Amino acid sequence: MTIIVDLIKSFIVKYWKLILIILLGLVVYWFYIQNQKMRDENLRLMNNFEQIMVDNNTRVLELTKKELKKYNVDSLFKELKDSLNLNYRQIERTINHKFTYSFDTTITMIKENDSLDNYDLTPRKFRLKKDCVDLIATIDWVKNTSKIDTLDFDYNATTIIFWKRKHPILWFLSKKEYYPETINNCNGKTKITEIKIIKKK
Q1: I want to staple 183 with a disulfide (CB 3.0 to 4.6 A). Which of 80, 85, 123, 187 is the partner?
Q2: pTM for this structure?
């Protein structure tokens, strides 16, 4: 043991300048890497801030798994994530689509029977609200018109792109396989078409 210690001391004494240069180089490289990480992080945060502040129809946010867990308020995302039993580390990307549309118009009705003497012809207002559709309308039987006061269509869909291993038990031998799943607030069916771009050999 004493011989090994003496050899190490002798090596340090003989090559201390080279060792010092290597250590200084490693310290400089470490500071450079940390500075690049800080620069990239600042750019990411600035880009997210600009995306949120600017009123664009399309936003692309870059979030860490921790930020996604803490700040994402999309209820559909949580519902879909829980239904798929996913961990945040399995989620590669999430996309939320929102579509809103409002209009009012008057529709002319056609009577199948002109004899309406026995009916109350007072204009009636009704409301139909279900899932993503909210309709308020007034029917005027005398004028044969149905006036849509407001029709609001609010569609919201969330897609999660995630990975799972084909053989979870042999995870170290199994590759990640990626899947997209979508949920919407209209209780309708969502059709997904996934296209994989392959390179020709």
Answers
A1: 80
A2: 0.62
